[in-house]
């Protein structure tokens, strides 16, 4: 809409926001307000003038920020890991052009688009826990959970999506939790907290999930037992690189020997059972660790009866289960490949 020259005074108030508009109000009572789109402003500064208006262009902002920081501010539902990955993949568009470096400084008024598939969870860890909940038949609906090793919040995100009523998120680090998780009213975040020395929570929990690094799971078990109800569930992510002896870990921190995997599984499962738990099953994680390490997930139920003699998981049992898991995994992969071939035909 083009305004003719108005020989009347009017005032203009404007404010910077995510909505682009200027509101012109006449000083005369019989004139209505006119909304003009396409302008982004900051603050309120009324003035009087005479004008002929065709279009108004915003003044460019001189303030610049890192691209990944701007993305985190505008797309707070996604983690820094996802944002930086998308930038490297060329899926972030700034004012119509692709930028591949997260540290690139851009004006904070730039138009930023993310052209990537929306992830189900705030980070990859959510898919790991999902596999355990589904394959090991762990019900979290309506339960109060403790998620230790919170990090970005992948496990917590999965727990919430599967119906947990509240999650206490514990991590020794600080500032890693995705805003989506931190701002959720069902989540209580405890940064800079070492689970080993956590003596109590506002309530005993029904479920504990562990995703720990640089420490053995067995070292935190006394604290875990203290925070759980008598009838409760434990789901752990077992990382051989942090459980094996140093001599068993290869270059780059990767454990490649299947025999070491078996030894670690046997040690951790039996060790947890010695704290009053019964192993209900375990699976290989569908996603490898950040460095390419094979990882495992195990589910336990807490029992009031001490672990009976002879109930320890033997190496033969571990070997048998690993063989079953491998065969099942191969069958699923073969079925998937066959389905893809049929679709191509």
From TrEMBL:
Residues 65-130 form the RNA-binding S4 domain. GO terms for molecular function: methyltransferase activity; RNA binding. SUPFAM superfamilies: Alpha-L RNA-binding motif, S-adenosyl-L-methionine-dependent methyltransferases. Pfam families: FtsJ, S4. The keyword DNA damage does not apply. InterPro entries: Hemolysin_A/TlyA, RNA_MeTrfase_FtsJ_dom, S4_RNA-bd, S4_RNA-bd_sf, SAM-dependent_MTases_sf, TlyA. GO terms for biological process: methylation. Keywords: RNA-binding. Belongs to the TlyA family. NCBIfam families: tly (TIGR00478). This is RNA-binding S4 domain-containing protein. It comes from Lithospermum erythrorhizon.
């Amino acid at each position: 809409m083009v305004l003719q020259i108005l020989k009347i005074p009017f005032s203009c108030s404007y404010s910077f926001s995510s909505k682009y508009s200027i509101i012109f109000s006449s000083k005369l009572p019989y004139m209505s307000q006119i909304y003009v789109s396409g302008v982004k402003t900051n603050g309120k500064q009324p003035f009087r003038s005479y004008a002929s208006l065709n279009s108004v262009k915003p003044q460019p902002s001189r303030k610049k920020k890192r691209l990944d920081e701007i993305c985190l501010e505008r797309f707070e539902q996604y983690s820094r890991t996802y944002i930086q990955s998308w930038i490297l993949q060329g899926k972030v568009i700034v004012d119509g052009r692709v930028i591949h470096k997260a540290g690139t400084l851009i004006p904070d008024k730039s138009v930023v688009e993310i052209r990537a598939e929306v992830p189900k969870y705030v980070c990859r860890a959510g898919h790991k826990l999902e596999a355990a909940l589904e394959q090991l038949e762990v019900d979290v609906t309506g339960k109060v959970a403790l998620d230790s090793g919170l990090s970005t919040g992948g496990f917590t995100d999965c727990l919430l999506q599967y119906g947990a009523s509240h999650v206490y998120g514990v991590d020794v680090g600080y500032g890693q939790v995705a805003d989506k998780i931190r701002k959720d009213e069902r989540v209580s975040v405890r940064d800079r907290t070492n689970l080993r020395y956590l003596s109590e929570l506002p309530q005993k929990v029904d479920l504990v999930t562990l995703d720990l690094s640089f420490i053995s799971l067995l070292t935190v078990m006394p604290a875990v037992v203290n925070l759980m109800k008598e009838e409760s569930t434990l789901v752990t992510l077992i990382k051989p690189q942090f459980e094996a002896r140093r001599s068993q870990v290869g270059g780059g921190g990767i454990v490649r020997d299947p025999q070491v995997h078996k030894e670690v599984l046997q040690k951790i499962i039996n060790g947890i059972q010695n704290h009053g738990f019964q192993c209900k099953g375990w699976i290989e994680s569908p996603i490898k660790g950040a460095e390419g390490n094979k990882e495992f997930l195990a589910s336990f139920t807490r029992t009031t009866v001490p672990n009976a003699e002879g109930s320890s998981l033997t190496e033969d049992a571990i070997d048998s289960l690993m063989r079953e898991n491998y065969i099942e995994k191969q069958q699923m992969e073969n079925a998937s490949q066959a389905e893809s071939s049929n679709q191509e035909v």
